[in-house]
Amino acid sequence: MPDFHAAGIKVIHKAVSVRHVVKAQSLGVQAVSTDGFECAGHPGEEDIPGLVLIPAAARALDIPIIASGGIATGAGLVAALALGATAVNMGTRFVATTEAPVHDNVKAQIVANGERSTQLVFREFKNTARVARNSVSEVIVKLSQRPGATFADIADFASGTRGRTEVLANGNVEGGLWWASLAQGLIDEVTSCACVVEQILAEAEQIIATRLPSYLAAPNIRSSSVDV
Ligand SMILES: Cc1cc2nc3c(=O)[nH]c(=O)nc-3n(C[C@H](O)[C@H](O)[C@H](O)COP(=O)(O)O)c2cc1C
Fold first, then answer.
1. Is the minimum distance from the CB of 43 to ligand 1 under 6 angstroms?
2. Within the chain, which residue ranges are assigned CATH 3.20.20.70?
3. C-beta of 41 in contact with ligand 1 (< 6 A)
4. Which residues contact 31 (CB under 8 A, 6 or more apart)?
5. Is any atom of ligand 1 closer than 6 Å to the C-beta of 14?
6. Residue 105's closest CA among 164, 168, 195?
7. Which of 60, 71, 74, 224 is deepest in the core (most CB within 10 A)?
8. What whole-number distance in Å separates Cα of residue 25 and Cα of residue 16?
């Protein structure tokens, strides 16, 4: 690795498995960003969700963890902190903001979509990607599952130009692949980045200040019953 430290540059390595963040720490990075299986983009081939990835990484590391994958709420932030992260990053949540330089149709589709509205593509080629489920992602999965299929069979459907031009610029959400995560199921409105951050922090503070202490205030947390 080049000597980033000498140039005063901090390195954050992004990874989807514990062994890879351990390797990154051994090479001297200052922090890692762990992407749980819920994430948009490339979740890897091992399918470890944040609920296990974050604490498993925290056990193995001394450096800070920035958690990501499926986080879009204050509850997600608090959960990530409880699991051992020191911060979170969010991709899909920030796409559905007024500032995001993508067509309004994409933002509206994220709001309309739910947690089931994603699809894993490129699995057969060991380059798994999580995208918003649409007719193009469905065709890609079907073609990829044919015996002997190669990437060439789907290259046209998967082209980045389609995604960038047709979807993100022109707003045709069925025009190509576009990245989105399970977090779509938690996104109810398009608002500014400042509002997103403020709402998440307010919800996190409320949970920490009210909901969590209520468990400690119960006569005995081990025997507290669940009202049904
Ligand atoms: C529109 C979009 C573009 C992305 N582009 C990249 C990228 O170029 N490189 C990368 O490592 N991750 C990329 N990601 C993944 C994010 O950095 C982040 O790891 C992921 O979105 C976290 O999951 P979340 O969407 O549930 O918050 C992208 C995500 C989205 C939604």
1. no
2. 5-90+192-217
3. yes
4. 10, 12, 13, 63, 64, 65, 66
5. yes
6. 168
7. 71
8. 14
Report the C-alpha gap between 21 and 13 in whole angstroms: 7
Atom 1 in ligand 1: residue holding the nearest Cα: 179
91 CA: nearest ligand 1 atom: 21
Ligand 1 center from residue 210 Cα (angstroms): 32
* Choice among 64-68, 88-92, 223-227 with the minimum mean pLDDT: 223-227
Rg (CA), the chain: 20
Pairing of strands 87-88, 65-68: parallel
∠ CA 207-69-146 to the nearest 5 degrees?
145
- Put simply, whether the predicted model's pTM sits higher than 0.90 gets the answer yes
CA distance 160 to 176: 8
Both tokens assigned to 185: 């199921």
Q: How far is CA 183 from CA 32, 68, 72, 131, 191, in A?
A: 21, 10, 6, 12, 15
pLDDT tens per residue, range 182-191: 999 999 999 9
Question: What CATH number was assigned to the domain covering residues 5-90+192-217?
Answer: 3.20.20.70
At 121, is the secondary structure helix, strand, or coil? strand
Structure tokens at 131: 């995208």
Residue 40 C-alpha to ligand 1 middle, in angstroms?
5
